[in-house]
Each structure stands twice: as structure tokens, then as C-alpha cells.
Queue: 2 jobs
Job 1
Amino acid sequence: MLSFENDYSEGAHEKILQRFLETNFVQVPGYGNDPYSESAKEKIRAACQCPQAEIFFLTGGTQTNAVVIDSMLQAYEGVVSAQTGHVNAHEAGAIEYTGHKVMPLPQYDGKMKAEDLESLLKTFWQDESHEHMVFPGMVYISHPTEYGTLYTKQELTDLSAVCRRYHIPLYLDGARLGYGLMSRQTDVTLPDIAELCDVFYIGGTKVGALCSEAVVFTKNNMPKYFLTHVKQHGALLAKGRLAGVQFDTLFTDNLYFEISKHAIDMAELLKQGLAEKGYPFFIDSPTNQQFIILEDEKMETLKEQVRFCFWEKLDDTHTVVRFATSWATPEENIRKLMELL
Amino acid sequence: MLSFENDYSEGAHEKILQRFLETNFVQVPGYGNDPYSESAKEKIRAACQCPQAEIFFLTGGTQTNAVVIDSMLQAYEGVVSAQTGHVNAHEAGAIEYTGHKVMPLPQYDGKMKAEDLESLLKTFWQDESHEHMVFPGMVYISHPTEYGTLYTKQELTDLSAVCRRYHIPLYLDGARLGYGLMSRQTDVTLPDIAELCDVFYIGGTKVGALCSEAVVFTKNNMPKYFLTHVKQHGALLAKGRLAGVQFDTLFTDNLYFEISKHAIDMAELLKQGLAEKGYPFFIDSPTNQQFIILEDEKMETLKEQVRFCFWEKLDDTHTVVRFATSWATPEENIRKLMELL
Amino acid sequence: MLSFENDYSEGAHEKILQRFLETNFVQVPGYGNDPYSESAKEKIRAACQCPQAEIFFLTGGTQTNAVVIDSMLQAYEGVVSAQTGHVNAHEAGAIEYTGHKVMPLPQYDGKMKAEDLESLLKTFWQDESHEHMVFPGMVYISHPTEYGTLYTKQELTDLSAVCRRYHIPLYLDGARLGYGLMSRQTDVTLPDIAELCDVFYIGGTKVGALCSEAVVFTKNNMPKYFLTHVKQHGALLAKGRLAGVQFDTLFTDNLYFEISKHAIDMAELLKQGLAEKGYPFFIDSPTNQQFIILEDEKMETLKEQVRFCFWEKLDDTHTVVRFATSWATPEENIRKLMELL
Amino acid sequence: MLSFENDYSEGAHEKILQRFLETNFVQVPGYGNDPYSESAKEKIRAACQCPQAEIFFLTGGTQTNAVVIDSMLQAYEGVVSAQTGHVNAHEAGAIEYTGHKVMPLPQYDGKMKAEDLESLLKTFWQDESHEHMVFPGMVYISHPTEYGTLYTKQELTDLSAVCRRYHIPLYLDGARLGYGLMSRQTDVTLPDIAELCDVFYIGGTKVGALCSEAVVFTKNNMPKYFLTHVKQHGALLAKGRLAGVQFDTLFTDNLYFEISKHAIDMAELLKQGLAEKGYPFFIDSPTNQQFIILEDEKMETLKEQVRFCFWEKLDDTHTVVRFATSWATPEENIRKLMELL
């Protein structure tokens, strides 16, 4: 059955699998000390135009968020997130499991506003009894957000400025970063992110890899003994080459960006088709996730022929659903979907 | 350079990589609900002769130990382990990070004795103030142990009997289980383990996979909402196929056992060679890890030509080192090593 | 200086101190196994008309909330609270420190609505991906709330019914329970609370004791080995008599209720005086905490003569402040305050 | 019935109770910002000859150990303790609950040897794979130990020197510190401890107070926002005066030392009596805890007339029991006990 359920339904880009085969019997040290990981890090530093970047490979968004947030916060600090942030809503309490509160702010199309953030920070520090409360110790944003939306460069700059004024790090969750960077409606580049954020991750799992995400610390601020933190969280790969080979391949010859662009091209085709057929959009998303509103009856019929993702009930007779394209979506599938709709 | 440093220096068995290629563009659901995972579980149940077994795939020994132990223990319980148990010594405090004490018992060639365990449990429950202490809530053993040694079927049966008498689960860490099962000196089979243990894992990372371990709950005792526990620990793979394809391949046509047998054959060759050349053994290991005692000078010379693992200082002039074979060790490498020694 | 800053500015009711003196040299067992604790528990059971109640004494609201919530929740569960709930706002992340999320609901004068709760629970269980989210595992309410307001018996009954429908416990934080029970505008009695809630605590620290709160489990639902949970949280008193003597005295001859009534009488005098002088109230509180709106200039002048509690900035020129009466407030102090205002 | 069960069977020194009465209605700020706490801190600083000492009052040994250790350690660090250390054996896993491993060393009459400590630290840092293990981040000793024994000044100096060489703090658990300082066989003074340790606590609960212990940070090393750490652990008293009044009284006119001396005098009487009657000692304790070996039959008879503490089974027919004196033991009780024995 045709599936637009998510962007992790297929395996990995074939060049990655080929590279696994080619390098398979080279004996290399474990725990990330292999030449593939080293090479991948060099290429990522170059792509970020951030030669001092410290990079570590982890597996999956929830793991990455938990390890980064827990290792960068003091025990008495929490992390500020838009209410719809993945860490607040869809990670089974993995952040609270590490002992830290997620401090929610209002969301606007999935995004946090710099003025809301500033207000929270100002109110906290002005409150005479703030030592009895959770200290806001880090800001978490996702880009693209859970709704597929993107921060503008100005918005990122403003958030970054507030963070610096209050001496707390800005952390960007880039689970779908490639799709954000290759959106036709963005003015944000990878070097911008490296400059404006203190730490971020480049998602691999949803952008062509079987697994693995690259955490990038941009300001010589990787926590001391980070490998030990990672191991303590059960997140250290014995065969670090698994991540290394994947990211080395993705950052060779622009592959990460090209396959991300393909997903965006497919999303734009899909978007155009949906618009032409008169499906109402729930939100205007410039990336690979498209949210439309379906009558429940229509939805039930459609379910028999194509897989998509239930998002939320809108009212008694309508539902918001998500269609996602990815690096692996063939153009033919878009055409087939259009016929079904 | 020739390496006998460990059993995770190479990638994965080529049949696994081939299978990745073959299945790469099949669209499947995430989080372990894919057909490859289902098929792998069926095959593992059959190999264990345990049709009711509940199986979950995780990544890496430390992660697996932390998730299994934390999700099966009550908050006030700890896990009993031989002093040399991996959870007690080499996992960066990952168990304590989840809030549970590792309660050490004396070790004999890396193994725990049933009488020591019984004595600890008896003493605990007889102590009138035991509510002020950590409750022993689970027993952890590794098989093969960190020293490459193996429990006999009688020893396992005795440990299991003590656990049942005190109503606590027996957990077996099988990071290198294949090498244990194919040892020439064992009377323990996979079905024995499934019968005598309440939970155990079949290690993939060190036995032919790129990553992934299969946790097997044998007594209808998988913790409720285990997937949520796993996600909360940051251990849930979005692309569950990564584990599924690997274990499905390993448990097809006996592959897991055949490649394990190869490692044992290589270890026996190595052992014989070492003995012939007069190297003293630190311990008599019947599996793929061989521990010998080297004069420090000899060790320094050898280091320039072959990679092996520092184990511990024996005295001022001698060091214990480890040579490991694996599923990937070519017979030629053993010959080359023999020439060097 | 005159102080209405809070309800914990004085020591303890003198009858408690006298009882310390009388019992001081009686040798009794530790950890709560003393006759004073036993007697106090009997009296509390009688006052609650709940003969099967299991009771444990802890110290302070934050400690009590953390121990109760952590010991009653499964690892993957969180606690639902009104956004203004003490556990969500003013406990330095003590709940998250134990690994559990506080799941906020809208507040109405500090209270949670049964329909909001039902909606959250229904939405959670209907969501197909709920195993990726935090399970709502308990409901936390405070009575009186942080704003001094009270649930009606009907409101409590409705919340209780929702909790039972979804099989999760209802927990009532009674840090100021005495003041709630003796309010002139309540129809809720202590036996009502024991019937409708699954667990609650009777606050001592703010109602006449030096420290100590009495946790009451009403449904034979005290977590197994609760003493060990308590000790693990560092909350077990060696000299359990400290709590026992205090609660035994408070629940002898109705003392807890009489001194609470006194605080309410004082609060009503204060309220009447403030109203007569035309001070606008921020909220209509029927208990010992009164919130009024002051012009900032007026506030600064007043600060020099009387201590009160900053609550929050209302706008650029006005501030909400709190005046609290207590068991210890002399009527004379109300008169003095009225002269100042 | 006569009781020598422990040193917390009575209430508090009467001067403390009198002081509660005298100060009861003085209105003071909460959370330790009261004048009694300030005065107590000044007096403790003077007694320690450590004018820069930072002091915080907590309640109970387990709570104090958990808060101090957790707030001073990095996430990847554990605390080194003699195997018999209270944190390792009798605190229900309260340290592990905070995420940190207790790293046991051999004990000699309850004490740790500097050379064992040095060896552990040296081995750790020399091990090439130490980033995969728990970092030893603090040393915990108790003085008196759980066996009533004491470190000599030389032993403390040696431990302190090792700690400084490895840049980790030395923490002394002084639950019974008064009894240690007033022992007839010690050369260690309170200023010695303040100089040699980085942090320690002066026990109140077992030395004349109802509750409360005074944590002393001696090297300007109190963790930042320590009050917030304390609150997060549920350990912050609203009525800080409860601790303040107690310690202010104990450190006025040498009271803490005088009542400790009384306990020692009683212990020496007891010891002499036991020796004269030919009871074999299990260990030679110079403080208020005396351990003797009883035939099981004798023990059962004795139990009917006097309370003492079961310590451990020695063999099939003998048991080690503990008799404890305290600040509250009347000389008459020693005489009565001697008649019974």
C-alpha cells in the first residue's frame, strides 16, 4: 500500500548501504574513534563553517534531546520549550526522567516567540522567591517544528539574543533539519544555525540514514567527559562506525542537501495537487510535512488505499491528518496519490 | 594493522548488509511494528523453544541492561551482581543513574556462586532492619562472563532455584551469548537459558550485527507498557527494521550459531598456539576471549605490530592482556599472529 | 515589625511544646514506631471516619508531594495538576527530580475543572500514539488552593468520579487543610475528603505545628514498603515522636479545628476591614490568605511598617500582595494593621 | 523498660525545649532566614575556627548525605566509601536514588585506609578506559564510624592529602560527631575536621536535638543555589527556626560538648562494667556505642528486661549486640543494667 505516513518508512540511502559494504571488513576502534566518524565530523564542521565545532553521534531524537539537555543543565534547571515542542509532548517524559522540568511557552504555528521567552526569563529573575522555582536553564526549539514550520533568520537571531542576554544556551532540534534548510521559503542556512545556536543536531534518521543524529556544539561548550554522560544514558555505540559511515556519506558531495531538496520538491508537488483539488490546509507548512483537514468519512475511505498519519480531531466530523514526503519518495507516488484523492 | 582488540572491530555479516539492500525501499511501520521484526521474533521464539517469549530489540549492552533492570525493579530494589559484572564495573554508572544500587557479590572466575546469593538473600530477610536497606530485587549474571568463562547447566539451575525461592527474577546478560553457546566446553543450550532465566538478551553487536540486542522475557513477564519505558530511556528506534532485519537474518539458517562457532574455532586455534609458545594464561577461558600474561617489555614490542586489549596490571613487570576472536576473524590472521608471537 | 507575610512565621501551638516537655524522657522506639505516633494515627482515623486509613508522617509540603507522587506512580506516568498547582510552580522541580512530569491543566481561581480533566484523559487514551507520551497517572489538587479558594463538595465529587472512571488516584494537598475545613463558605468535611480522595495530607507546618504533615491513604492503597520509599527520599525521621507528639496534640480535643477556626475568624475580620477601606481584592478567598491589589507607591510605604507577601505584578503601577492570618494571629494585630492601612 | 537500644530514644535537651517556648511567638522569616539560624551559624563557625564556613541545616543523616553528595558530584561521578559506610549499607539506596554509585573500599574496624583510597584513584586514572567507568568524585567517611571507632588525626591528614592530590572533596559524616570529639581516646578536634575536610556535618538528632544536622562547607565550596538543591530534594524546612533554635542552643555555653562528654562518661562506665563481668567485646569502641558478643540464650533472657540493638549473627550460637549511651542516659540506668547482666 502507498504510504505517506512519515519520513522514516524506508531504509537508508543506497550510497550509505554501499559504503557499509565497502568498509565492512576494515578493522577500526570502537566508540566513535574510527576514521569514518572523524571524516564525517570534518565534513560537518566545514558545512557549518564552524571549524571549532565539537560533534558527537547519537541515535534518535528522544535520546539526543535527553542526553544533550541533561548534560548541559544544572540539577536545578529546566528547559524552556514551545508547548508543542517534541520534548514536551511526544517523548514519553524522557526529559523529566532525567530530572529536569520542561517549561512550556505558548506556541504560534509550533514556534516560540522571543518576547514570550524574554518575559518568562525577566519574570523569573525578578521574582524574589525564584530560588524556590525551577531555573530556566536552556531554550529548546525545533526547526522545522512539529508542524513543519520554520523560524526566519530574524526570529532565530532574536531568540539567540535573548538567550545570550540571560546566559543560557539555545538548543535547536534538527530532526528534519535537511528539509528545513532546503525549503523554498527559508532564509536560514546551516552556518546561520551554527552561529546563532549554542548546540543543535542534524537529524539523520529522517533524512536518509538508518539511524543516527549528529550533535554539534558550536561554542567550545561540549560538556566535560561527554562520552561518559552518553554511556551513562545507554547511548554510546560500540560500533561507532555505524554512525560515522552514514554521516560521512551524507556529507559527501552534498548528498544530505540533495536528498532533502528532493523531499521538498515532492512536498511542493503534493501541496500543489492538494490545493488544486480543494483540500483545506490546517497550517501552511513550507517543508516535507503537509497537514490537511479531512471529513471523517472521506478519511475512512482513503485509509483503505493509502497510509497517512492521524494528527488530531478538529471537530466532530473532521480530522487533521499529515502526509509526509521524504528523501525516498518517488514522484510516481505523488501522482498515484493525486489519482486517489 | 592486525587487530585482536575486541569482537566489534568489523561491520556486520555480509548477509545482513545484503538483506538491507533487498528490503531497503519496502515501506514499513516504525517503532518495531515491521514484518522483519515480527519474523525475527518468531525465529528467536523457535530457537529458544519458548513459544510464549516476549521479545524487544534494543541497542548495546549498557542500554539493554539499564532498561531491563530499571523497568523490572521496584524503586526500593537493587540488582545483585558478581563484583566483576559489567553493570558493576564498566557501564559508567548507568544502572545507578536509573536510581538502583548494584549489590556486589564475590566473583570466582567472573561467576557468582548460588550459595553466596542465597546467603545474601537469607541475611537480608532475616535482618530486622531490612526495610532500611536496599532490597535485592533481581540477579544479574553474564554468560559468557567478562572473563570469557561459562556457567555450567548445574550452576545455572542452582542460581535459578535460589531466585525462585526468593521470588526474584534471574537476568542473563548475553552480550556474547553465541560464543558461549558454541563453546566446546558447555552443556548449556539456548532453551536451557530460556527455561532457567526470567529474562535474558541475545547479543547482536558482538556477534555479527552492526548493533542491536534481543531481549527475551520468558515468563509472560515483560513489564507493562514496555515500549513506553524504552522510549523514556531514549532507546526506541524509529526505524525498528534496523534491528528486525539484522536479527531476522542472524536467526535464518542457523547463521548466528555458525558464525559463533567460527569464532570459537579461531579462539581454539589461538589458544593452542599460545600454549605451544608457552604464554601463561591468566584464566582458562572456553570462549572467544583469551587472557594471557605478558612481560611489559614484550607487550610494548608486540603493540607495534598487533592491536590487543590492555586488561590489568598483574605486577610491576607483567600485564594481563586480552586477545579476542569474532565471527569475522580470518584463519589467516591467527597464523600471522602466531608468527609475530 | 507586624507580619502577615505567611502562616509559618511563629513556632508551634503551646500545647505541643508542653507535650514535648512532658514526654521528653520517655524512651520510645524510632522511625515512627512510638506510642505518640500510634495514638495520633488513631485520632486521625476517627476524625476522618475512615477506620482503615493508613497514615504516615512526613515533613513539609514539597517533601510530602514528592514522596507520595513518586511512590504511587509508575515510571511512565505523570501527575495532572492545575497550572497554578504548587507542584507545578513553586517546588523547584522536586516532582520532575523524581522522574515524573507534571501535566498542567487550565486553572480557574486556582482550581481544576472536572471536564478539563476528563477531556485530557479521553484525548490521551483515544490517541493511537499514546504509548509515546506521558501517561496521566494521578490527579493533584490543593485544597485550599494556592489562591486560598476551595472546591465545593460537588466539584470534588465530580473530580473523584472522573478519576475512578479512569482508574487513577485523586490526591489532595492539604498544606492548609484546617483553614479550608473551617472556612465559613465550605460544604466539604474531613470525612468527605477521606471518601472522595484516594490519598491526601493534613498539613501541620502551617496549622500549629513546628513541622510535619500527615499523609492519609484511604483505600488500603499505601505503596508496599512505603517506609523504604520514604527513607530512600531522605524523609524518614529517626525521632518519629517529633511528628507523633505534634499530631497527637493537634487531634486531641479538637485543637486542630479550633485553631484553624481562629485563623478564619481573623481572616474574616481582615477581609471586612480591607473591604471597608476600599482595597480591591484580587480574588475572593474564603480562607486565611487574602489577596489585594495595591498601588506600587502605597505598597512601598506600607512595607516599612508591616511585612506581607509579594504575589505578582498586576500592571506597571499595581501589585498583587498577600496577607495571611494563622492559628497564631492575635486579634490585636488585625486592629493594628487596620490603623496602618 | 530500660533501653540502650540507640541514641535517639529520648526527645531533646531541655534547654532546647525551653528555648522553643521563649521564642515561640516571635515572628521570623522562613526557610532559614531567621535570627536563630544566623546566630547558630556564627557560633558553629567560631567553634570550628573557620570564619568563612558556609552552613546549612538539614534533617537526618540519610537526607544530609543524599543532598550533600548529589549536589557536589558531577553526574558521572560516584562517592568512595568504606564498605560498612552508612551510605553504602543502611540508607535504602538513597545515594543511588540520586543517580550516583557508592564505590566501596575495604573497611578496617569501620575505617577506610588512605593507601586503599590512593590505590583506587591511581588505578582509575591509569586505566585507559576510565571514561567507561564511574569517576571517583568524592570521599565519604563517618566519624565516629558505624562501629563507634575513630580516625586519628594522622589518618585524617593522610586521607585529606590523597583527596587534595586528586582534587576531590573529603566529606565527613558526623551523625555522632559530639561523641567522637569527646572520646577519651581521640586527638581530633572540631577545628582539625574543618581544616582537613572539605565538607562535614555536625549531627544534632543523635546528640541532644529532636532533629537537624548542620552541614559545614569549609572551603567556600557550597554548591551554587544550594537552597534550590535542598528544596528539590524535599529537604527545605519552612520553619527554619526549628533547626536554628536547636543548634543555637547546642552551641551556647558549650552545651553540645558537655552533653557529648556525659554520654562518653556513661559509655566508659558501661564498658568497665561489661569488662568486669567478662563479656567479650566484638570491637574496641572509644565512643558511645559498645558492641559485645552474647550467647543466644543469654540474649533471649536479657531481652525481656532491657532493650538493646541486634547487630549481626556471629555464629550459630552467638550474636553481636550493641548498647548505646547518649546525652540523656542517667548514671542510674548503667547501674541497673549492671545488675541485670
Job 2
Amino acid sequence: MAEASVFPDFLAGVKAEVSNILDRYLTVAARQYRAVNVWGPDAAGRMRAFVRTGKMLRAGMVVVGFVAAGRRPGVATMRAGAAVELIQAGLLIHDDIIDRDLVRRGGPSLHVQYARLGRKSGALDAGHFGEGMGICLGDIALFMGFEILAGLPAASGPRAEILGLWSDDLCRVGLAQMQDLNFGQTSPDASEAEIRRLYINKTGRYTFSAPLRTGAILGGAEPGLKDRLAGLGEILGLLFQMRDDELGLYGRSADLGKPVGSDIREAKLTLFMRKLFDGAGPADRRRLARIFGNPGLDAAMIREVRAIAERSGAREALRLEMSRLRARAGRMIDALDVPPASRRRFYSLLDYVVERTK
Amino acid sequence: MAEASVFPDFLAGVKAEVSNILDRYLTVAARQYRAVNVWGPDAAGRMRAFVRTGKMLRAGMVVVGFVAAGRRPGVATMRAGAAVELIQAGLLIHDDIIDRDLVRRGGPSLHVQYARLGRKSGALDAGHFGEGMGICLGDIALFMGFEILAGLPAASGPRAEILGLWSDDLCRVGLAQMQDLNFGQTSPDASEAEIRRLYINKTGRYTFSAPLRTGAILGGAEPGLKDRLAGLGEILGLLFQMRDDELGLYGRSADLGKPVGSDIREAKLTLFMRKLFDGAGPADRRRLARIFGNPGLDAAMIREVRAIAERSGAREALRLEMSRLRARAGRMIDALDVPPASRRRFYSLLDYVVERTK
């Protein structure tokens, strides 16, 4: 179990450095945008508070990719990590509006913060006001991320490659988010294969493949290594999202920063849910249909879903798929041409992705 | 009156070239993103239809800035223009969600198109589904714009300068949009000076200053000219937005692509509205208060607002301010160190901004 803390410790180190960069960047932004209007420093302040609460896993991936190329990370790596965290913040702010998530990382989502502000200031429609302000703040976080990427202290070749990578990848993330929205609303019959592809496009890319490749580009890795890291990132993304599905039902809300069962309440079609519906008998399927998307979801219903997950074999099937993917990721790590310390880091990352509790 | 068509003719020429670039880019995107999911080609198709309906004023400004630097526009200029049009599309798609505008350029707004699709496919909450899809599409348009800017066929110095310019400027546009939302909802007492500053930050920057500067950077203009063009852009932005205010009450809905009076129905605090409230007597002010933000706004109410605009002197005050700004812009054009053909183009642009009917 000592191994389990190796990766979180590494991440904490990255977070300390990247937080400093973000703090400085957002302090300058607050000063600079004070001239625009009062919302400039307000936005910078909210963003600073928001990025601080993250694990900074994506910034960590930039560092991991850089180290894989055999280099010691410096200021360009950490700045790229900061950019990726701002982009992640922008996507999450928009996602919370789209998914109507009121809680994020244990606090009110950004659009909820603005809705409260609107209510206090007498906005005609505080809910919509909050969403509008949140759309703007998400846009601003994305622009800030691109600004840092465009100004990375690196040669113009790698810088252009990184900008091209992110703008293309983020288009794909946007399309995956559209598909996710449809799985919940208009296409409840999506297959396991479709959901896996969604996980790769939505989580795999911007959480693992793109940050790993970004680090590798900055580190001057040869093209083969960059591609292998991106391929490994897809598998890590799948595993990460499957662990997310599992934690959504079996985790602790204090760890998750949101209520257990929120996926079920929001009728979110996860891979776990797909296996659950497909593995359950007719009577259990009827029970699930009453619970799935039920706004009055309570602890008894969550216990019932857990019981169905056990007796239908859905949880076992999820665990089995995760074990196989973990073994596959291990083989991919073994095949990487990277320094020994980097290989150990990839193994601790893999442990973390599968075993994390938050 | 022959003069009035000089600038629209120029713009039509730019539009033809930029449309070709956008068509090609979005055709490739549709093919490439088909591998992600069905929403890839769908998004590219909707975007192609949307950008085609624009005047492409912002792409025109990139060309005007380039020509001011004494150069003949080539492929880099037109590609930059295409990027700016995609960024504009992303901002408009988000704006229409924020402002609840159902109609844009004579057709349903993008989020309304998606809401209809959701309704047909049985979405649980088609309105919110449409907004969620629209947020994603707006993000994608912004990423595409940045992708084209990052890949401009230009030296790395100017390319980095352009990317830095747009990411900073778009942060400011986002903050101005936040302020605009507050003027409508929580701060109905904003002063004329505050509204003017909003116009400069919201419209002036991304419609005029940033595209003009982009063209000038590509054309290798010296710093002094770039700054003077950006300064002129702010005045043009003010004039453009004031003309918008005026057309919102006196224009023809067929020209505007949206109903006359929509600003009034949506309780949007424009500079014209500010002058109207401030110039009206007590009885007229009470009449205005009943009409402003009234969802049942009809033709009789619009006639009443027009009558109040005349007798309060608000329209005259608006026209006077526009005349003064026009003279100031003329002096700024005279002071530019640009080729004679470029100076004539600036004058035809100024005529267009003040006299346009759509």
C-alpha cells in the first residue's frame, strides 16, 4: 500500500510548482483586466480559487511526458502544465452548465456562484444569468490557456506543434461532449463500444494523450515515442473513466467532492450503467429503470443499485475489463523506450489511475 | 450614393475568397471528425452554413490592415480572415445562448436548431439540450479559429504576436460580455461613459482593432501604425455599435435578420436607450418603463418609443455624437501614414460603418 502514495506525492510536487505559476499569472491578469471592468479581477479571483482545488493530474501528465523524453522538467514544462489546467478549468465550467452539476470539487460550480450573485443583485432570471456568466468565464479560461501555450518559452517548431495538437484535440473533446449529452438525452441505447470510444475521445485525449504528448514535444522526443505515449494515454483514459464510474456508485462523497450516485440521478449513461442494464434480469431491469434519472434518488435506492450490480455480475464484468486493460497498459509501458525512473513513474501512474479513491 | 456601395463591394470580394477557404477547411474537418462521431460532420455542416451568411466584415478588416501596411494581400491574409470569422461564429453562438436570441441572420440560432433536433429525438429537456450542444459548438468554432491562426503561413514572430493578441483580446471581450449581461440584469443604471467603454471592449476590439492589427502584423507594419490602427478601430467600434442601436429601432427586420425592437424587448441597455431614458420627461419615462423589457412588445409600442426618441431629443443626441466621432475618425485616417488607395478604403469603411442599413 506504500506504493499507492508514490504517484499522489509526485502530483503534489507538480501542483505546488504549477499553482505558483497560475497564482502569478492570475494576479497579473487581475491587475491588467481591472482596466476593462470590475469583472476582470472578479473572474481572475474565482479562477484562482477554482484551479487551486484541482489534483492537477493533467499538469502532472505534461511532466511525465517530458521526463519520458529523458529530460529534467524546467519552466517551459510547468508553464505548459499551467496552460493545460486552465483549459481543463474552462471545459469543466462549461460542462457543469451543460450537465447541470451544481457542485464541483466540494464547492458550488462556477455558474452557481454567479447565479447566487445575480440573485443578490436582483437579476431578472438569476439561473440564466449564472449560466451566461459561466459561459463567459469558461471562454476566458480557454483563452488564457491558449495565451500561455502561445507564449511558451520554447522553440517555434514545438510551440506550433503543441498549439496545433490542442486546437485539434479540443475540437474532438467538444464533439465527444456533444455525444455524451446525446447518450443521456436522445440515445439511451448506445452500445458498450460507443461508450468506450466516447471515453477515449472525451477523457483519454485531454487528460492523458494530449498532455503526455505536450510534454514529449517539449522534451524533444522522437515521433515514435510521442505516438506510443498518446496510445497509452487512450488506455489510461478508459481506465480512469471506468474507475470514475465505479467510484460514482461505491466512493465516498467527501472524497468525490459531489454526492454519490449523481450519475444515476442525472441519467448519465456510463459504461458501468450499460453493463448493469444489460446484465440485469427483467425484474431488476424494471427496478433500475425506476431509479435511473430519478430526481428523488436516496440512500436505499443506491443500496439497491449496488445489490443489482453484484447479482447481475456487472461489477465483476467491469473489474474484469479493468484488469485486462491494466495488463495491456503494463505491456505498453514495458515496450516504451524511456529511462528506468520514467518507467517506474508510469507504473505508479497506472496504479493510481486504477486504485484512486478520489 | 454611389460611394455607399464601394465598401460593400470590397467586402463581397473578400467574402468570396474567405468563403472558399472556410468551405475547404470545414470539408476537411467534416471528413476528419467523422471518425470521432456523427456530430463531427454535423457540426462542420452547420458551421459552414452559418459562416456563409455573415458579411465577413472582420475578415475584411484583416485585409484592410494588411493593405495599410503597403502590401498586396495573399493566402496568409485570407486564412487569418477565415480564422477571425470562425472566432466570431463561436462568440455569436455563445452570445445567442446568453442573450436568449432565437433568431440570427434571418434563421434560427444554432442552439435553437439543436433544441429542435432534441425535441424530434425525444430529449428529456430539449431547450437545455440545445443550449448544451450550442456551448459545445461555440467552443469548437473558437478552437478551429485558433487552429488556423496557429498554422498561418507566416514567420513565427508575427504568428506568435497574432496568437497573443487574440487570446488577450478575447479575454477582454468575454469580460465585456459579462458586463453587458449585468447591464441588462443587475446594473440597469450604467452611465453613458460605462456603456461607451463596453462598446469599445465588446465590439471595437474584436470587430475592428484586433483584425486591423492582425492584418498590419502580417503585413509587417511598424509598431506606430499598428497602434494607430487599433486606436481608429476603437472609434469605428463605437460608431458601429451606435449605428446598431439606431437600426435596432429604425431598421427593417428583413435587413437586420431579426425583429425590429428586439433590444427593447430583451431590456438591453444600449447607449441609445440610456439617452432615451435620460432625455425623456417623467410621463414619457413611465411609458418607456412599461415598454422596456416587455415580452408583448408590438408595433404600436415601437412607434411610441420612436416618438419619444424624437421629442426627448435622444435621437438627435445620438446623431450628434455619431457626427463628432465620424469627424474624429476622419482626422485619424488623415494622420495615417498609408498608401493613397488604403486611405480611400478607410474612408469608404467609415461611410459604411455609419450609413449601413444592415
